[in-house]
């Protein structure tokens, strides 16, 4: 696969993550190295407890490593303060979860526009316009006034993906994005994530679902806190 840029959008170098429980130190990530380029879907699989969720939290700037270096768009970010990390996360990273995490008291349109409230420069009418445009792209415009309980699982996941894209991030992190879906909706969401990479964005999927390895540009197994590249179409 041809990479869209000569440097990765994000790189992790020699990342470790330790947790202290009583007098014991538990090492979850052990000298983990990872890079992703725009235009790629990277898929990470591994057994429960192998460190996948911890790695995802570090990539998403929700947690800090014990040691190691993190670079975003060639700039070092592992020493950023909390405010700067939040700013980078809200502008450049989108999240998709297995359980959708939609707010039940908000309509589809309101859920999609919600992240834009973090951007004070975006006015009310622009928020509505951006959320409606994103719902159109994902085939959910006609359902924009429906609440999550009125939507199927596949529809809720499409709304969740629209929400993750509305602020135009370069990196999308998907944690078991098809875990609650039937086969038809599963394939639809995978195709949608593939399409996102063609928009010059990077997608990282953490999953137990083996079907993803057939769609991955780079496929890793997480084994005892380390990433092992299994295959690549690069």
From TrEMBL:
Upper lineage ranks? Bacteria, Bacillati, Bacillota, Bacilli, Bacillales
Domain annotation ABC transporter: ranges: 10-234
Record-given protein name: ABC transporter domain-containing protein
In its UniProt entry, the species of origin is given as Pontibacillus halophilus JSM 076056 = DSM 19796
Q: Which PANTHER family match?
A: ABC TRANSPORTER ABCH.1, IMPORT ATP-BINDING PROTEIN
Q: Which GO terms describe its cellular component?
A: membrane protein complex; plasma membrane
The entry sums up its family as follows: Belongs to the ABC transporter superfamily.
Record-linked CDD domains: ABC_MJ0796_LolCDE_FtsE (cd03255)
Q: Which GO terms describe its molecular function?
A: ATP binding; ATP hydrolysis activity; transmembrane transporter activity
UniProt cross-references to PROSITE patterns, sorted A to Z:
ABC_TRANSPORTER_1, ABC_TRANSPORTER_2
Question: Which keywords fit this entry according to its UniProt record?
Answer: ATP-binding, Nucleotide-binding, Transport
